[in-house]
């Protein structure tokens, strides 16, 4: 059994390859960039390359993509060719090869404008049933790729699972307000409440999806750290998030203060992973409670895998606007 991992030089691709190799499982990493975890170099937009890479493959994890930080540096056609055309190439070759399961890495960014409640409205409670409203070409192409995946699951009987992952990158935020107002570690810790997941838990979700896809047939799941909030907290989270956190975790404010951290004043969304936990049997470990326990005991709260993969960035150059400029009008 050989697993094809696309995007093996990226954050998630490397994390998957590290894990599979550590488990002594056969895995083939492909990417447009060379790396210690890339076995074959080429573009998923190249049908011949994809056909050759698919030889002998029984399972596919498709993590390669152009990301939101590329919106300001790549054209619409680049996004279509990679995120949609590349996915189509992989699906067609996977169906021809008769692979046993296909996992597509999507993103919670696909929800787009559905994540922004009107002024005075409660925070959004985001489940798989929320209708996405794409805000940029990244979201458009990820949604289009999801649609092509669903089509192949139905028409070609390809066992397929889509995972909409929340943030797991270690880089500073692309929002200058967050980037300039919070230490990156502080912001990431805050996000475990509602919109972040540790890469180790993301890998776990992908491997479970790969295993369970044949029984599921087709499924779409949000992959985010388990939130401590309930739908009854949404109005209060939009008014005063620190008060809600202190109510649920007495003493959290003091732990933060000791480290010079601060909570976001308000939260506008909460990603809900209940379906993934129930149907995939996924048990994410690295949540906000785990973070507080680590702060209390003065130990590392990020997974060893997250530390091993580290920061990669999204471009080969630095920019005056920040580590990865994003067109704020379409972000």
Short description:
It comes from Rhizobium chutanense. The protein has 331 residues and is an alpha/beta fold.
Per-chain topology:
Blueprint: E1 2-6, H1 11-22, E2 26-31, E3 40-41, H2 47-53, E4 59-62, H3 76-97, E5 101-107, E6 124-126, H4 137-155, E7 160-165, H5 176-181, H6 184-191, H7 199-216, E8 218-223, H8 234-239, H9 241-248, H10 252-259, E9 269-271, H11 274-280, H12 288-297, H13 304-309
Parallel strand pairs: 1-2, 1-4, 2-3, 4-5, 5-7, 6-9, 7-8
Helix pairs in contact: 1-7, 3-4
Written overview of the protein:
InterPro entries: Epimerase_deHydtase, Lipid_A_modif_metabolic_enz, NAD(P)-bd_dom_sf. This is NAD-dependent epimerase. Residues 3-212 form the NAD-dependent epimerase/dehydratase domain. It comes from Rhizobium chutanense. 41% of the residues lie in helices and 13% in strands. The chain is α/β, with parallel strands linked by helices and 331 residues long. It has one domain: 3-Layer(aba) Sandwich (Rossmann fold), CATH 3.40.50. The strands form two sheets. A seven-stranded parallel beta sheet has the order 3-2-1-4-5-7-8, sandwiched between helices. Strand 1, helix 1 and strand 2 (26-31) form a beta-alpha-beta unit. The termini are far apart.
